[in-house]
Predict the structure.
Amino acid sequence: MKTRHVLFFVFVASACGHAAAAEEKRAIQPEDLVDIRGVSDVQISPDGKRVALVVTEPADPKKPQQARDSNIWIVPSDGSEPPRIFAASPKKESQPRWSPDGRYLAFLSDRGSPVGEEKEAKNQLYLIRSDGGEAEQVTNLAGEVLTLRWSPDGKMIAFTVRDAKSEEEQKKQKDGYDEVHVDRNYKFARLWRVSLADRKPEQVTRQDFEVSEMSWAPDGGELVLRVASTPRKDDIYWQSKLVVVRRLTGEITRTLAEPVADISGSLRWSPDGKVISTGLFTPARIAAWMSLVPAEGGPPRHLMKDYRGTIWGVEWTPDSRTLIAQSIEGTQAKLLSIDSSSGTVSHLIDSPVRGQNFSLSADGRTIAYLQQPPDSPGDVWVMTIGQSPRRVTNFHPQVASWRLGGLREITWKNKKDGLTLCGVLITPPDFKSGQAYPTIVQVHGGPMWAWPLAWHGSWHDWGHYLASHGYVVFLPNPRGSTGQGWQFAEANRDDWGGMDFQDIMSGVDYLVEEKIADPERLGIGGWSYGGFMTSWAVTQTSRFKAAVVGAAVTNLFSFNGTTDITPSFLRNYFVDLPFRRRAAYDNHSAMTFLQNCKTPSLIIHGDTDERVPVTQGWEFYNGLRMLGVEAEMVVYPREHHSIVERPHQLDLLRRVLAWYDKFLKK
């Protein structure tokens, strides 16, 4: 058990103290963002008195390739005491889950010794009494434990385990025969269970399918699973189905729905046993509806088909009449109460956050959730129905010394069709109305994502960082984004770089007209789909004087054959396979129009990115070099679609700011 000296600060400042603090504020540095502690997986105890959470610590600068350490913390839900470390080791703890009686906390950790000849530690299932003591290792399997769920009576835990390599496979690999036979010999995530009475893990499903999500029936006799025919991302995201299996044998008793959308945190069996909540695709299989499926089979009911927002995750209240949900509407993240019969939505509170991160007490009256207000990274808040929300952690006191800009929602109209759009505007700390500033457009990834009115500071979210250094930062949510209904999310189908690009440029025009943005000092950048839109923008207009092209799709045709989400992702957006619609794919690819680009561009990519292969960046970079356009390319070894190593994140942030400064602050 490792120990840490943790300081928990509470600030009480006089007027003079505020003035002094204001004088000491400084611009945000890359180290500030990279070393923010991550707060996630907020889990309230059944009695509503305690909250478990995962805290991810800054990486160790002396071990640059080592993953960040994460531990499980506990805090009283009334905020009467500061949070404290509850389960920790030299490795990682994750997924804390209370037993229904609150006596135990189950969690995953890779703290154990490696199994067999494989030299990597893998997550296993652990138990720790909620009143303290040493954690007990429950599983010691060759495969890695991925997820866990307590049975309703608290007597069992269901969990999923990834198949391990056989002894023969390990020996061959040791002898150098490590070839990969593509789409063969899959390693599936299978359902297991363990009884608290004997602590003996038993495999439940033996069929060759991938289990990606599960939920217990109220009587504990069955589980509903979201399964796919293979572990391939394409099958998991777009080809999954709901099946019900027996707890003891894994026998499939019925199939309830297919295909099922990948809305994490949506698969929940109602306490009365009658229906199961899940995400189901719209006809285009791009967006999804929150739906209720009869547990015994039958047609689903789309609960919120006309909702002008996007649901991230749900939990049932004990009476099965209400779903509590986290969502985004425009730029506003919300906690909602949804009537399960009518679909009527009531707003509980604003909850600035990215994605689903909340939990309910057993009586459904107390909610613990992660909140990321515009001026601070995430902390835990608790709300009891009928009472005011209360903040119970303060993990980021250092932010008080940073120069933060102003942040607000803005709206504007597309100049071609008059559609009203929304986004977030971050202005520099010394912003003066009527004075035009160098302005950077950062486009979000997805495209089904949205910029919320929340904290914007990380290795790939540069809003506060750039504003702190004197830039106006414009974060648009063009058509294709979430948060404005499923029709809006599908409005860029077969039109990447079309009206969504016009949405963004109309927003830029609005900022210029309002004398906020300097038209001679405009930059653009983004990651993933944001990188696509950046590469597209600089081939369609010369208005931008600098661009940062991060993990960008630049050639839709070659991307389709090399990404790990082929073929469904682009086929759904562009109606058919590229071999039958080559012109459509080419007409929406930046490479087709590269000769138009005059904008100095910094291309950034992870070397082992499976989602957007680095060859997409190489195509764009080498093309610009051939055309004589100023360009630089930086490739980070070992990095995938997300950049995770601390030195790489620091380097990326430094390069982004330096690139914009070079061309926009002449």
About this structure: The longest strand covers residues 517-527. The mean pLDDT is 93.
